[in-house]
Amino acid sequence: MRPISFRSACLCAVLLVPTCAWAHEYWLSLDRWQAPAGQEVALSALSGTGFRGERKPWSPERAVKFVARTGVLLDLRRAGESGEMTWARLAPVDDGGTMFGYQSTFVPIELPAGQFDAYLKDEGLDAPLATRRAAHAKGPGRERYRRCAKAWLAGDDPTRATRPLGLPLEIVPLTAPGADPKLQVMVLVEGRPLANALVKVWRSPLDTRGMAPDPETRDSTAVAARVRTDAQGRATLPVKARGEWLLSTVHMVPCTEQDQAEWESTWASLTFARIVQ
Fold first, then answer.
1. Three-state SS for 172?
2. Are 166 and 45 in contact (CB under 8 A)?
3. Residue 75 — very low, low, confident or very high, per pLDDT cuts 50/70/90?
4. Highest mean pLDDT out of 35-39, 86-90, 164-168
5. pTM of the model
6. Across-strand partners of 192?
């Protein structure tokens, strides 16, 4: 793959399809989290557990939205080749930073009853779990899910990070990610604040050069924090330590097309790095 710049707007996207939705996170990854204008950055995406994952190829059929907010908002859905494991090697044209965002189509999945209920409990999906218990549901969980992922390449224009990208479910930082030991975020569903959403947080250390270890070979990590959003959809997350950070949340509602699935879930993630403490 030839290096490209933001001017060309030639980036690739990816769909990650985990083997078991309840057990897998989904995130966008950069090989470096700070890059001055003209320095190359490699973009990929992973699916896994404990912030360790497997890189997944890009599937154009699954991409609903793929954008990069630099000084302008770039639509990247038609760029890239099917099957690429690295989305792009690119060089930003300024030091303002870039927010990447991706939305997939829905994918159906069916899980055994016990596994599905455990997944609902672990992800803090109280309403669907209560509905199943009230109905004494013993059958498998029929679900269709989609992914909404974001990654922040650090820069000196925080508005590129703090403005929503318009994803169906979105973790919106209210300050520049990685700048402070606490990060306040707002979770939006269809553009509206989502109260009582469980936001999970993971961290992976950086090396002495400020680079993240290979996500495919590094050790899995435990969840660093679990925080619920308030009535305004806001949560304050502890991100003091130096490292690469992953935030994730899930929202589930009854599916409007019951012939396809009983439930419909949307997973959102945000990745970034805190370089200094």
1. strand
2. no
3. confident
4. 164-168
5. 0.89
6. 189
Give the Cα separation of 210 and 30 in Å (integer). 12
Task: Give CA–CA dist 132/192, Å, rounded.
Answer: 26
Q: How remote is the C-alpha of 207 from its chain's centroid?
A: 23
pLDDT level of residue 212 (50, 70, 90 thresholds): confident
CB 117 within 8 A of CB 129: yes
Distance between CA atoms of residues 248 and 236, nearest Å? 14
Q: Which residues contact 19 (CB under 8 A, 6 or more apart)?
A: none
- Torsion sign (Cα): 235, 63, 265, 31: negative
Domain boundaries, the chain: 4-274
Residue 69, C-beta contacts closer than 8 angstroms, at least 6 positions apart: 98, 99, 100, 101, 160, 163, 165
Cross-strand pairs, 69: 73, 99
* Residue 217 amino acid letter: T
How many other C-beta atoms can be found within 10 angstroms of the C-beta atom of residue 236?
14
For residue 59, which amino acid is it? S
CA–CA separation, 112 vs 123, rounded Å?
17
* Per-residue model confidence as pLDDT tens digits over 14-58: 333 333 444 489 999 998 898 888 888 888 889 999 999 999 998
